[in-house]
Amino acid sequence: MEHTSTLERVLRGIALGLVVTFFMFPILWIILMSFQTNETILRIPPSLVFEPTLDNYRALITGELKTQAASLKIDFMKNLGNSVLLSTVSVALALLLGMPAAYAFARYRFRGSEDIAFTLLSFRFAPPLLVLLPLSLYFQQIGLADTYLGLIWVYQLISLPLILWIVRSYFEDISPDIEHAYRIAGHSWFSTFRKIALPLAGPGIAAAGLLAFVFSWNNFIFALVLASADKQPVTVGALAFVTASGIQYGQIAASIVLSIAPTLALALYAQRYLVEGLSLGAVKG
Amino acid sequence: MSDVILSLSHVDKFFGNPSVGVHAVQDFSMDVKRGEIIALLGSSGCGKTSTLRMIAGFESVSRGAIELNGRAIHTLPPAQRGVAMAFEGYALYPPLTVRDNIGFALRSAGTRDVAEQVTAVAKMLNIQDILDRYPSSISSGQQQRVSLARALIRKADLHLLDEPMGQLEPQLRTLLRGRIKHFMKAQGLSTILVTHDQTEAIALADRIAVMEGGILQQYDTAENIKNYPTNLFTGTFIGEPPMNVFNAAMRAHENRLQFHLNTETMLDYPANVFSDEVQSILRNVEQVIIGVRPYIVTRTQGQGLPVRVETNQWIGDQSLIITRLAEQTLVMIEHKQSTLRAGETITIELDPDHIHIFDAQNGKALVHGREHTS
Amino acid sequence: MPCLRLIDVDKSYKGEKILDRFNLQVNDGETLVIFGPSGGGKTVLLRMISGMIEPDAGRIMRDDDDITDLEPQYRNMGMAFQNFALFPHMTAFENIASPLRAHKKTNQEITTAVLSIAALLKIDHVLSHLPRALSNGQKQRTALARALVNAPSLLLLDDPLRNVDAKLRFEMRLELPRLLAQQGTTVIYVTQDYKEAMALADRIAVVRDGHIIQLANPQEIYHTPADVEVARLFGDPPINLFEIVPRKDNKTTLIDLAGHTIELKKAKAGLDRPCLLGLRPEVLSLAKKDTPRAIPITIEAKTPLNEKTVILAVTEQGQELLISRPSQEPDQVNERAYLTFEPEQALLFDQASGENLQNNLHQESSS
């Protein structure tokens, strides 16, 4: 009765295939688009048969956007660099601040600890646009507008609550007795945090860091409002492809492929942690 | 044959592919008589729970047949098998009170005096005070008793109890064992209980099926398993304090049989205390394992084997005396408060009538006392 | 010589008093067992001694030093936990070595010390394993080795045998006293198992509701329990209790038990008020034939328990009682039997307060 019949196996394969196609289709289509010219993309009816071209990628990398009308300068590679810089630094900062905070929230019950933790989480609830208007005014006054520092600071709204809540639940899952045992063995508080709590919460920290990185990378609105062209990440930079002479589908597709490549690679590499972190967040967060 | 209620014949259970998967139960055959209480005993992973689940119908039978009351049941769905079960995970219905949980099956069967029966069984299990509470508001020990009550109250051809008292305090267990055994005997219930606790098995069961590695090791009364274990495993598994075991080298002389525990210590018996058959077995082996139950170790004055007392643990009505004999541990038991102190040396004697001798290679029992194994 | 003293220690959680002006003195070299039902404050007590929890009030003294505010890493104690609390990302060897590393021992010293304690606990063959690859018994031995390796002067054992199966627990109960004696340390051992308590303890502190109910050696606890609750907690099968009202007749005290009048010699207190007569299952004798003072009973079930036979019986009045006999004694009785006991072996408790009346009497006469 446990032996699966051939029919069952075939049906299961078909079902899985359908699901995978359904979810992967947009990405697949975009990858195909990135190797086509605007003309082949806009063919009606669309066809899977075309002559692949690397023109789109060449244009992005050299920064020369050629349209029928004119040749246009774009700075896609600069945008990509900005994305890497903003996401990496803001996640690193959020980890630096978030891990000790998460540990404190997990281990110590002090007056208002739940309230503070919840307030931090509630930053995620606020519609970004609502926050942005006053924020952009303040930033201009104190000189943070259009600086990397300002952006990284605002990015903490995205990454800090995420890291705090995911890592906190990982710390809570570690039996306090394990830390007690290490203290009684003769180790200080800090070395217990470093040698016991951090390694044991490692998967959670990795997952939270990855998620925060993905969310920071995908952010659009903060950078759109608070930064000028030379500080903007790829998400905003892609707007440049909507030109006066039309929308450059081929280049948009290629830029999408280039911009999702790092996060996709990272996510595939650390898939296990990511799923673990996500499901934990779903239960507890 | 009407006197056999349940019979399992050559039952196998595979998980996964037979060639690579787990062979959880192997060629298991067992008969249960009407009104008999049987314990399936073993440590975790021995196959006892798989066997129980196959009887209940929650697990398919890979090979072999199960007959209950004369009809083959191993292909029937659980509900049609006529079996009542108390689950290790309790499985109570959360929206029903304890009273309704216990009486549920009876009521749906249209029994008349449900209320009286529920009260009686609840009283037996000391849960009469929580009958109107809900499962979520009672302790796990109470939930376990509710689950047990629900199974015991049902009219069924066979009652299956999975670790029925695992969550209870030891002293409550001792009391309930007596009451439950009385109840099951008075009602004539045929019962199979699964447990890892040999005390539970010995206390409740008429016969015990000792399992290990998916194989039925021995199926007999507690008394017989204790006195005639088929191998070292059953011998040491049954009994608390457990059987003392010693590795020994066998030396057979013309009229003496000697068991050398080490270079200095040996058990030395005149050959003629053993039957001829036993002698011939012992003269043909070299390495043996000697099993000695704690209660047959007797103290002697002067003569005998010297042992050094290591600790004397008095637990109220018994003293366990832990000694060293030939660099190995020998435990003896006295049913009073012993005055022995750590460090004292005493002499003891091991009655050849009651020692067990196992083959050191495969653990098979060779000799029980003076007589042969069978 | 006191090794550790707790003076008027208070601890509350969420407004609930866990320990209430708790006083305890642990003597050098002894094994003190803290016994009691769960939630009685035992675990909090150990964590306070080890320094993981601060008391709300009161002092903790080590020899002559006040260690109440000393951080755990400076207390030089060893502790083993109920849930083992092994470091999951370190091998058994590194787990055991951890206290030595904290004290900056050389690698040579560490290896020697770990190997010798591991050999003693019979886990030398699994030292390279991570905790998840160890069986429960091996985990438990690793945790013990870690607690012992640095030769602490005070060893705290928090119900260390609770999470191992019955067989292993029994083996460890036999092995532990020798092990502890070899180390020669003072031990505070927390347990809920009265057999462990009696087998290991020099003294037992019975703790309930944040108080010590009785502090005495095992013999005294068993024979003269402070109250009916203590009597009930020690002994399996548990003590039989009968509701009675003792009355005076000439110079003796009489009680009515199961339709018979029985003379109690010792009891002088507790006259004319509801009392509980406590009879341990092993002091009851059964006979086939009726004698003048014997109580007729019906035997309902016999269930063997650790080389004893426990007999469940009911009196003609429907009162249940448990009798225990050594299993090896020839089994003479079936169904109907007559019960006798020596009145000196009975215990008498006040029904309202639970207090042991003989104890009370003893104290009154000695003061």
Structure notes:
The complex is a heterotrimer of chains A (285), B (374) and C (367). With 285 residues, chain A is mainly α. Chain A contains 14 helices and 4 strands. The longest helix of chain A is centred in the first third of the chain and has 32 residues, at 76-107. Chain B is of the alpha+beta class and 374 residues long. In chain B, helix 2 (98-108) packs across helix 3, helix 2 packs parallel to helix 4 and helix 3 (114-124) packs across helix 4 (140-153). The radius of gyration of chain B is 24 Å and the shape is globular. The mean pLDDT of chain B is 90. Chain C has 367 residues and is of the alpha+beta class. Chain C has 9 helices and 21 strands. In chain C, strands 6-7-8-3-9-10 form a 6-stranded mixed β-sheet, sandwiched between helices. In chain C, helix 2 (92-102) packs across helix 3 (107-120) and helix 2 packs parallel to helix 4. Chain C is globular and about 75 Å long. Residues 361-367 of chain C have low confidence and may be disordered. At the A-B interface, loops of A face loops of B.
Quick structural summary:
Helix content of chain A is 73%, strand content 4%. Chain A has 285 residues and is mainly α.
How are the strands ordered across the major sheet of chain B? 13-12-11-14-20-21-22
Distance between the termini of chain C: 27 Å
Q: Care to count the β-strands of chain C?
A: 21
Give the uncertain stretches of chain C in residue-range form.
361-367
Q: Using the CA coordinates, give the radius of gyration of chain B.
A: 24 Å
Q: What do the pLDDT scores of chain B average to? A: 90
Whole-number radius of gyration of chain C?
A: 25 Å
Largest sheet of chain C: 6 strands, mixed
Name the largest protein-protein interface in this structure: B-C, 43 and 46 residues
Strand tally of chain B, please? 22
Strand content of chain B: 35-45%
Mean pLDDT of chain C, to the nearest integer, reads: 88
Determine the N-to-C terminus distance of chain B: 26 Å
| Low-confidence region ranges of chain B | none
Give the quaternary arrangement of the chains: heterotrimer
Task: Encode the helix/strand succession of chain C as letters.
Answer: EEEHEEEHHHEHEHEEHHEEEEEEEEEEEH
Helical residue percent of chain C?
25-40%
Report the sheet with the most strands of chain B, covering strand number, pairing sense and barrel closure: 7 strands, antiparallel
